[in-house]
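Handout, section B. The chain below has 339 residues.
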Amino acid sequence: MKPFGYVRATSLQEAAAAYARRPGSRYLGGGTNLVDLMKHDVETPGTLIDLTRLPLHEVEEQPAGALRVGALVPNSDLAAHPLVRSRYPALSQALLAGASGQLRNVATTGGNLLQRTRCPYFQDVSKPCNKREPGTGCGARDGVHRDHAVLGHSEQCIATHPSDMAVALAALDAEIELYGGEQGTRRVAATEFHRLPGEEPERDTVIRPGEIITAVVLPPASTGAVSRYRKARDRASYAFALASVAAVLELDDGRVRHVSLAFGGLAHRPWRATTAEERLIGAEPTDDAVRGAVEAELARARPLRDNAFKVGLARRLACDVLGDLVRAAGERPPVPRTS
């Protein structure tokens, strides 16, 4: 590991000012991914700005029923929080599907969103990688790419985003709160926070230099909605997704009133399945309707030499999860009406 400086911030303002004095620094939360990358010289920041003393450790219910999750809330605490388990079960399930128990105790909500791809060409500095070093090429495209993207990839990069949590947040219409020092605070939809590689694969997100993730905000959960997260992987635990699905469904008189569907493991970012959603809204959610909607979404896939199996895997996962949610929604008592 190369030598680096260290600053412990005690406020957001102090952290942003420290970054302004040292452009290219990295913020440190749990460090479960960043420190690993520093050990392998993939990340070589001049300074680490430690955020762990900042007051970002709380899960707070908002007056209108939304939930604000501080960026430093550990993944294990968030997965076990009673309001998350009861109102957003897909989020709890996604968190518990990621990493190991030990890692979840340390990894933070903000850090989970900023973790880098596990593409082996990115993690090995002896290999070409446009994401790590723009202009060097993509070793995975003609190399080992069984685990790589089938949706939204470019000639520059075919890596996938590793987060399970981010897939659930995309399906739940969460927002990411960012603090930018003198630029103030802004929110970005979780579906827009991560970006596709295009010609700039080194940029994973739309976060601006120096911005700090301060919270994730979940909208009020509908009492009639059901949600679920499911993941397919090579091992039963401690493995990244070959494909995953997060979905939220609400029925009204046997037809789809609301549906949101997001895929993980298939693209450079959580893939919100808007085509499938548009086909299902207002429809009777029969097996044929669900399958047709999912197949319409996955018709956009461009699998590579070794990963075409992911398309069928994702289709089966999505159909199974949506089928389970249709049955679960049908078993729910009618939602009380106000008029």
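Note. The first strand starts at residue 5 and ends at 8. Compare this with the example in section A.
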